[in-house]
Amino acid sequence: MPILKSLGLADSKMSRAGTLPLRSSRNPFEEASGLEEEEAGELEALPNGTSCRRRATLEKLAGLAPFRLGRTPGRRAGSPGDGQPRSFLGRVLTPGIRRSSADFGLLARLQGTRAQGDEEAAGEAARRLAFLRLGRGPKPRRASLAERVVPAGEAAPEPPPKVPEPPKIKEPLSVLEILSLIQQRELARADEHILELEAEELASSGGGAPGPPKAEGAGGGRRARDVALLYEALQRELWALVRETLAGPGPGAGAGPGAVAQLGQVLVQEEAADGRRGPEAARKLRARWAEAVARAARERLEAAAPGAPGGLAGQLEALRGRLLEDMGVVRGRLAPSYPAGLGAFGVYLRGYHGALAEWIGAAARRRLPLADRYALLHWHNQVYPREVLGLVDMVALENGELEPLLSPGTVRGLEDECVTDVKAQTRAALLRVLQEDAGHWAGAEDRSSNLAQDVCELLEEHTERAPRISQEFGERMAHCCLGGLAEFLQSFQQRVERFHENPGVRELLPDTYISRTISLVNCGPPLRALAERLARVGPPESEPAREAAASALDRVTRLCHRILTDLLFQELQPHFSKLMRRKWLSSSEALDGIVGTLGAKALALRRMQDEPYQELVAELHRRALVEYVRPLFRGRLRCGSARTRSRVAGRLREDAAQLQRLFRRLESQASWLDAVVPRLAEVLHLEDTPSIQMEVGMLVRDYPDIRARKQTSSHRKPRAGGRGAARRQEGPAQLGSRGGHGDTHGHTGAHALGQWQAPFRS
């Protein structure tokens, strides 16, 4: 108690209703009643003899760092007051002035030199302060100001009305703080502060539109350089964000729609600011954004193409996959995050389209092989419009349709190169195939020829690919291939003629020779069909080439048919020599031999294609009838009596029926020839000369040899009609001049027919 009295403490039982104690406690471990009293009053010595000023010194040592809160007169550092705690630079600089990048350079230098010593001093001071606080013990409860002023039992007065605090002035951010926002990708906030800094620079420079960004070394104030550097940093982050958001599931996927939305907000803010700056000073970040999208698209496409296998076709397929993948990301994740007014999807689509056009153009300028050139044209004309742009909403484009990837001149040049290469390659390949196949014609082994199949495959490879690229290109390629086919068929015709003229082929077995000739004839129909198809697809100027090809095939077919017919009738000639003799009237041996030989040879002839086979059978039909009636026209058999003529007529009818059955079995289409022999039998029954002359005239009119040729090959020899008509007009006149001499003998009809054996000769 004496100690308490010596320290000046009042008795606890003393009434406190009177006045407030005027004397503060001298206890060093007790908090002062007010900061002003502690700092303004004299600090006396503690009971242990030490000065109270030492505690204040330790507290200052513990709480102060080189740039911690400063001390304001009349209160302790860091205590609540009118304003917020202020930093070192805040106390040095005038409030409301933005700190520039140079201020933070000073701060960095000071902190760099004193960082280590400050850390050690702060740590030691914190340990000493903790020890002192432990010695003071718990804080005693002090009476509140209301308890001291208001006596017990009385009501507390009404609190005074609160005075509204003045609005706090927002302190502008420094350049480094704005840069920190950019690095943290708070891009919209950073852009707002940059715009404020730019406005301050404009106001300090005396008005006018702000100029374009200046380099670090350009003339101008520090603030203008700060604005330029901040815009450079902002754009670096913006365009890096554009690249990262296109990276798919990689690092860019972590950017999220929020970062993309900030990018779009920056573009909107800058576009509005460009309206205030004017056209000359506009920064045009929206246009630079489109350029950044194009650069990112170019990087994405270039990264996808080189590693693809399969040459240029594989690279184009990899580009298609990358385009579909990235445009799916743009449509589903990126475009919805941008503001609607920016048209983000159209910007990305145009960026990828432009990057792809550069890649395709560079590929087209290289010297490509024919297969790669085909692949490039097909991808340009069909795959990209159908499988890439066909899946895109073209209405989203602001400026209408996209430009073509390649100019029309470039596409035409690629097509010309393709046509030139096809012309050279196919002609060389066709001649090589012909030479290889012709080397086996004179061989003794019986082997099938694949000449027509090889030729069709060589040409159809190009004639089928070209129309899938474009109709015009298909027409040009068809005309080119038809010209090459016509030249090949002319060479083929010459090789066939030399083969049959070669005396060495006579050494071949007849069956081998016939089989080889049939294989040559079989080349005609598929090659003829190919020529007709190419002529239909090609332009009108392809008609001369089609006629040349058809003419060469006709010559080959006629030559082979003539050779086969000659070979067959050489074997049949002994049987035809027995016709129209006395023994023939009583025996069918000669005709049975003819029918049997023709039936046996028909098995080999059936290996021929349908069209040339029908032509060959029709020729055999005609030739057989000519050889059959030739002896009768030559007067080999004399019919001196009516009985003889009747027997000859009956025999003719029987042979005609047997020949008709034979050629029906051989599927001959020349059924009009079946009536020749029966009409000759009817002529033999006539007695008067005028009737014979009339029937012979009608027979010559209906069955001249040239008429028979015209029926079997009218579509091969269009000039035959005129010559046949002349022969038909000439026949009755000659018949009339000869018939005037009349023959009273019984063989008058046979003699008249003998005078007209020429029209039925082969």
Structural overview:
The longest helix has 36 residues, at 101-136. The protein is mostly helical and 762 residues long. The protein has helices at 2-6, 35-40, 53-63, 88-92, 101-136, 145-149, 175-183, 187-204, 222-245, 256-277, 285-304, 311-334, 344-365, 370-388, 408-438, 451-469, 471-501, 510-522, 524-537, 543-576, 582-586, 589-605, 610-633, 642-665, 676-684, 689-702, 705-713, 720-739, 748-754.
Descriptive terms for the model:
rod-shaped; 762 residues; mainly alpha; disordered N terminus; 29 helices
Give the CA-based shape. Answer: rod-shaped
Residue runs with pLDDT of under 50 for 5 or more positions: 1-46, 50-86, 110-115, 213-220, 250-254, 706-762
Helix content: 55-70%
Terminal residue distance: 164 Å
Count of helical stretches: 29
Radius of gyration: 58 Å
Briefly, what is this?
The protein has 762 residues and is mainly alpha-helical. Helix content is 65%, strand content 0%.
Q: How is this fold's topology laid out?
A:
Elements: H1 2-6, H2 35-40, H3 53-63, H4 88-92, H5 101-136, H6 145-149, H7 175-183, H8 187-204, H9 222-245, H10 256-277, H11 285-304, H12 311-334, H13 344-365, H14 370-388, H15 408-438, H16 451-469, H17 471-501, H18 510-522, H19 524-537, H20 543-576, H21 582-586, H22 589-605, H23 610-633, H24 642-665, H25 676-684, H26 689-702, H27 705-713, H28 720-739, H29 748-754
Helix pairs in contact: 3-5, 7-8, 7-9, 8-9, 8-10, 9-10, 9-11, 11-13, 12-13, 12-14, 14-15, 14-16, 15-16, 15-17, 16-17, 16-19, 17-19, 17-20, 18-20, 19-20, 20-22, 20-23, 22-24, 23-27, 24-25, 25-26, 26-28, 26-29, 27-28
